[in-house]
Fold this sequence. Notes:
- The complex is a heterodimer.
- Chain A is α/β, with parallel strands linked by helices.
- Chain A has helices at 44-51, 94-105, 110-118, 123-127, 135-147, 165-180, 192-196, 216-220, 234-246, 265-275, 288-300, 302-316; strands spanning 6-15, 18-28, 33-37, 59-64, 79-82, 153-157, 184-189, 201-206, 209-214, 226-230, 251-253, 259-261, 279-284.
- In chain A, a hairpin with a 5-residue loop joins β11 and β12 (259-261).
- Chain A starts with 5 loop residues before the first strand and ends with a helix.
- Chain B has one domain (22-259).
- Chain B has helices at 25-37, 40-63, 70-99, 103-109, 113-145, 158-182, 185-205, 210-216, 218-222, 232-259.
- The model of chain B is unreliable at 1-8 (pLDDT under 50).
Amino acid sequence: MLPDMIEANSLTKRYGGRTAVRDVSFRCEPGTVTGFLGPNGAGKSTTLKMLCGMAAPTSGQATVLGTPFAKLANPGRHVGVLIDASAQHSGRRGGEVLATSAQLMGVDHKRVGEMLELVGLDSSAARKRVGKYSLGMRQRLGIAHALLGDPEVLIFDEPANGLDPEGMRWMRALLRDFADRGGTVLLSSHLLGEVQAIADRLIVIARGEIVAQGTPGELTGSGARTIVRTADGAPSDRALRRALAAEEILVRESPDGGLLTEADPEVVGRAALRGGVALTELRPAGDGASLEQLFFQLTTDKTEYHAELPELQETAR
Amino acid sequence: MSSSASLRSIGGSVRQTSKNQRPGVGRLITVELRKMVNTRSGFWVPIAVAALTALVSIIAASNHGGNDGTFAHVLHAASVPGAYLLPVMGVLLICSEYSQRTTLTTYTLVPNRWRVLGAKLGASLIVSTIATVAALLCTVVAASAFGHAPGGTGSLPLTIILQAWLFLAGGMVMGMAFGAAILVSAPAIVGYLLLPVVWNGLASNIGWLATPARWLDSDSTLGPLTTQNLSGIQWAHAAATFALWIGVPLVVGLTRIGRGDLD
């Protein structure tokens, strides 16, 4: 098994009475890009800050390269962090920002120029003060800064903000390439489209809790042919499972509460009819649109889902 | 630590020596000194201090009659610009990181926040040493230019020079402590300037505060540092003043900085 380059273990963060992040656990392996998805305010930044030692978890642990971030001797040489590209002194020149950090990390000054070139900031941009930078330029400077120490792990919070479509494509290629060379990437976004193309794994967070994680295929049920949903929850689900089992059709649960099967929709429909189960949804699984739909469902229906939960448990008993 | 380093590097040159080596205190202090002067405002403040010190030295030397206290008199004047501006630099040393949010970078590269503060303290002491040397140079040059000789043996004793250094260093560290306690530049600077004044006002109006005021009023306890050899009781007064005006804000600041989450 590959080592965990990033590991979050039951991370919880409470501010006063409000729980910003609840029981978040995941791991990232080398050679992979993990997309950390969720709407604004879902707890993505708070989670990433806990990983990087910027915020102390109320409970739970986070490790990077097997160690709490704060215990890394020279963290900049192992983990490239970009939490907020705007968090730079407006009166400092771009090149000087990198040169100062290079000195601190003990990286050859030559690398400053190389990283500026890599992210497409020319020498006139390097001489400009960061206050004069556009958001896109700051984002590029932040990416250059993260790569400066030649790290094995990248942790980026919303790196696509402010980048134009061409810049976004460039960044995706850079991150994919970084992972393909054995690096580990964790990047957050509130837009599925930004990470879907390059992510090996997706973690979906809503209202501070992880609501789904897995490969894009697992999340949309690829391999499965059909998504089916029953009318009234657990009892019908069990009835449907019995009906499908009678036909030797294997089922598993989809992350959003429906069932996934490898049989065609027609076969599933007939089995449901024989079992006397009313269906609310029966459709082929695994197209691109369904990931989008799943993301939307997972991140918007959370309250209703919670409201229904006690009732569900009652009927289940 | 994982073994999967050096799998890929984007770009060519990386010196590998310090990959797992903690940046040393010397390097941290150098970086803090660099950050102090590599911003637009940071660049001009020390130049302003140097220019004002030179100007004030010339004025003091030209106005002073030729008695043998000239050098000490000019040094006293030459330390005034630093006495006002070094504490401001001390405040900014902490607060600019918080207001510009470069703490996100600083504490990511050096997660141990005490080490960062220690480096800032070291940088403050170096800057105030440079300021003292500059004030001394201005004094000697200006006083000599106006035809004053170093006079009698007591004209510029080493004690006064060391006391001047303590005066400037103490002021800068006090500014740093106020910056750490308040974390926002403008209120920290105002607080630094105002609190001793408020304290004086209270002390002169409330009878029982008169005795503690004598120990803790920075104007009267620290002022003599650049003018006379301190007596035993004066040293005690100066020490008490530093202990209060550095100690209290610093403890508050260390607590806030140590446990605070970053925005």
